[in-house]
């Protein structure tokens, strides 16, 4: 605080304890800073956010990492791929050899035998039907007994049953032959071989055992964020989201999105109706149209960690500090409709509604 020099002659003690220049400067700084801080707390805006952590996933389940399994039991005879190799749909991955090398030949011979039985049964059935017609004519002329006519009909039924049984055996033989012919395991879609179960080459494998892991490439990506249950109630589809991908340099100011650097834009696509095992809710975030594209697949791969901030309402800095100090929920513009009530809550709501309607009627009568 400035003081006229001639006044110090009257106050000798005050003149003796004149404050240093540094203290005076600090006092001026504090006196100017406090009002500025107060004005900033009142007037500077701050965007509230619902934070969450998650990872990059493929939107289509067919585009996610999948396991290639053995279709038949046996032993891996040959690998056609190595780790990290690109494959197209239908490319061979491995060949499985059965314990019996002559299995397919024996199944083919068995099928041929069943097919011959079917042909013989069809010929016998045709002959039996002719016999039924001939015996029926003789029976009508009185030259054959009823017993002979009924016996001919029984033979037709027996041949029909044998024919149906043979056709069932043929279907089973075809199924066994097709399964055994599936010894060549092929890639279900385009992608890259991520890992191979090399131990399967030295041991027997069963149908359904894992052989290789296939990771599709160039698949549409989304981000799944795990958000706290207190914040997810205010999250709606279409809300803007700011994303920070792991390994990508960025400077984040959650309350001032325009100041942040290295962040990417997204929007809420969907919210899970139920919580995960950890008690958090999954929120799917897709790229925001009209904004800069997310980093390329070479930089942000499937499974990469992500931090996200779902943007909510804009409040003052002072209000946000007060909210966080008191651990209050985020601000929402309109009351949330909780839907129809049940039990005691419904009865209380009905009573309040009746009181309001009665008060309205009394006001109308008074007018």
How much helix, percentage-wise, in residues?
25-40%
- Count of folded domains: 4
CATH class label of the largest domain: Mainly Beta
N-C termini distance:
67 Å
Number of helices: 7
Number of strands: 14
What is the CATH architecture annotation of the largest domain? Beta Barrel
Average pLDDT, to the nearest integer?
A: 80
The coarse overall form would be elongated
CATH topology of the largest domain: Elongation Factor Tu (Ef-tu), domain 3
Outline the low-pLDDT stretches. Answer: 341-346
Q: What sequence of helices (H) and strands (E) makes up the elements? A: HHEEEEEHHEEEEEHEEEEHH
The description of the largest β-sheet is:
6 strands, antiparallel, barrel
How much of the sequence lies in strands comes to: 15-25%
Give the CATH superfamily of the largest domain.
Efflux pump adaptor protein, beta barrel domain
Classification by helices and strands: alpha+beta
Helices and strands in order:
Layout: H1 12-16, H2 21-43, E1 45-58, E2 66-69, E3 74-79, E4 86-87, E5 92-97, H3 103-141, H4 146-181, E6 184-186, E7 191-196, E8 204-205, E9 210-215, E10 221-227, H5 229-232, E11 240-245, E12 264-271, E13 281-287, E14 305-316, H6 317-325, H7 343-366
């Amino acid at each position: 605080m400035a003081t006229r020099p001639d006044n110090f002659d009257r106050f000798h003690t005050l003149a003796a304890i004149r404050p240093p220049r540094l203290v005076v400067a600090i006092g001026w700084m504090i006196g100017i800073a406090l009002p500025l801080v107060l004005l900033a707390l009142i007037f500077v805006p701050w965007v509230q956010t619902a934070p969450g952590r998650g990872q990059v996933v493929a939107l289509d389940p067919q585009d996610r990492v999948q396991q290639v399994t053995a279709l038949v039991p046996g032993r891996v005879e040959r690998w056609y791929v190595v780790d990290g190799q690109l494959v197209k749909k239908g490319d061979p991955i491995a060949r499985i050899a059965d314990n019996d090398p002559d299995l397919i030949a024996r199944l083919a011979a068995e099928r041929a035998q069943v097919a011959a039985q079917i042909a013989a049964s069809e010929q016998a059935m045709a002959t039996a039907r002719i016999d039924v017609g001939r015996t029926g004519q003789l029976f009508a002329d009185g030259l054959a007994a009823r017993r002979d006519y009924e016996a001919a009909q029984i033979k037709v039924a027996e041949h029909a049953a044998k024919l149906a049984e043979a056709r069932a055996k043929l279907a089973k033989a075809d199924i066994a032959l097709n399964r055994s012919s599936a010894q060549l395991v092929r890639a279900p879609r385009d992608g890259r071989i991520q890992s191979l179960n090399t131990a399967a080459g030295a041991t027997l494998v069963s149908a359904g055992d894992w052989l290789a892991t296939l990771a599709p490439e160039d698949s549409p990506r989304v981000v799944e964020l795990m958000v706290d249950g207190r914040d997810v109630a205010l999250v709606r589809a279409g809300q803007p989201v700011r994303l920070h991908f792991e390994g990508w340099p960025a400077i984040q100011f959650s309350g001032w999105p325009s100041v942040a650097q290295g962040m990417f834009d997204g929007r809420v696509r969907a919210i899970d109706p139920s919580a995960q095992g950890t008690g958090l809710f999954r929120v799917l975030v897709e790229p925001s149209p009209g904004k800069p594209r997310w980093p390329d697949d070479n930089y942000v791969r499937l499974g990469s960690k992500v931090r996200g901030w779902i943007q909510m309402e804009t409040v003052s800095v002072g209000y946000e500090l007060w909210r966080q100090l008191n651990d209050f929920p985020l601000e929402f513009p309109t009351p949330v409709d909780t839907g129809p009530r049940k039990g005691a809550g419904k009865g209380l709501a009905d009573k309040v509604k009746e009181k309001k309607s009665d008060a309205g009627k009394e006001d109308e009568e008074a007018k």
